[in-house]
Structures are given as structure tokens and as C-alpha cells.
Amino acid sequence: MNYKVVEKFVSINGEGKKSGELAVFIRLAGCNLRCSYCDTMWANRDDVVFKSMSKEEIYDYIKSTGVTNVTLTGGEPLIQEGVGELIDYLLTDEKLCIEVETNGSVAVHIFRKNHGRRLSFTMDYKGSSSLMEEKMLLKNFETLTEYDTVKFVVGDEFDLSKAKEIIDNYGLTEQCHVFFSPIYKAIEGETIVEFMKTNKLNKVRLQIQLHKIIWSPEERGV
Fold first, then answer.
1. pLDDT tens across 88-144, in order?
2. Cα 81 versus chain centre, distance
3. Which residues of 177-211 are buried (b: 16+ CB within 10 A; e: fewer)?
């Protein structure tokens, strides 16, 4: 089994519960969504250039970096054939912690197994601004754990209100980490903070994408 790897690099985590920490990123080709604001659309094209790598080659690359946080991303990594086998294989190394960045449209529970805290999912909920909200798999909210993160990608106050509704309905702040992530240049951070204050959103964090502050938003490999 080989995997379509469009990028592999070391940088800091730009978002999520390990924001600011070093991670080795493995970006897999392809996505089942077409979000209005996608910043990695190039990785989703049918003609994207990729390197075909086995699980052993991916593991060897990860070990060569000396970095123990691993982020599997895309596109949508969970739609790649055999990705569960890749996750299982990487986690045979007890020094590695795997974070899977997923778009919220794919069931995550089938990949969890008994890996515990060394496997976490950072799962998006894409509001109406994405034009993909109808693709969100709400059943995922019933299977998240304390190791996981829900990232509400928000572009306006309607997205914020929908996020609050879901947080309340599923008791998410008692179940997992919860973040508000603004769509780049679509909504002001101040607007999000005021919404959080007005609605007393304890245990919810505003997240700013660090990699878009440190580097150009169009920069790859960071």
C-alpha cells in the first residue's frame, strides 16, 4: 500500500491544541469537499504532483526529522485508501503522537481503535460560509474524546451562532477541546471575542493561524 504525499515538512503547528509546537507534517492528496475559502486547493486537484510513499518510507522520513508530533493533513487525509493502516503503523512507535486534521465530513471513530492519547483528531465544523455545511457529519460529535479538538471555522456571526448551538446541543466543552478559527480576512477577531463574552462561552478558545502571521498566507511547506 502506497500513499499520495504532496508535501512533507517540519514546522510549528499553526493551530490546534499543540499550536506553536514543532510537528512533522504529512500532507496527503485529495479532498471530498470544495470549501469557498480553501487555502490548499492545489493539493486537491486531480492532476496534483505527488510522491508515492509506503508506510515504511513515511515512517523513516518522520524519524529522520527527530520530531515526535506528527500531523496528517490534506486535503482530507481520511479518504485516502489504507490511511487507517498508516495510522496504526506509525503508532507502533510509542514516541510518536499523531494528530489527524479532518474536515468533519468523514467518520472518525473507525480509526480510533485503542490508541489512547497518542492519537487525536482535530475536526472542523464548516459553517455556511464554507458552502459545505450540509456535508458535515454530525454523528462525529458523539464519538469525540478529551484528546480531540473541534475547530469551528467561522466567517460571520451566523457561523458563530451555529457553532454555539452545536456546542450547547452536544456539550462539547465537557467532551473535547473547542476552538473558533476565523476565516482569513473574513471576520475580525474582535467580533469573535465579543460574541464569546456576550454568550459566556467558557472553555472555548479563539485560535489565530500562526503560520499565516509568521509567513505569507500563500507560502507552502510551513
1. 999 999 999 999 999 999 999 999 887 888 999 999 999 999 999 999 999 999 999
2. 18
3. bbbbbbbeeebeeeebeebbeeeebeebeebebbb
State whether residue 19 is helix, strand or coil: coil
Grid coordinates of 197: 463574552
Beta bridge partners of 3: 53
| H-run or E-run covering 119 | strand 119-126
pTM of the model: 0.92
What is d(CA 187, CA 26) in angstroms, rounded to the nearest whole number?
29
User: For 36-45, 71-80, 159-168, 201-210, which range has the lowest pLDDT when averaged over its residues?
Assistant: 36-45
Closest CA to 162 of 148, 180, 147, 174: 180
**Dihedral class, residue 63 (left if φ above 0, else alpha if ψ from -120 to 50, else beta):** alpha
Q: Is 51 exposed, middle or buried, given 0-12, 13-18 or 19+ CB atoms closer than 10 A?
A: middle
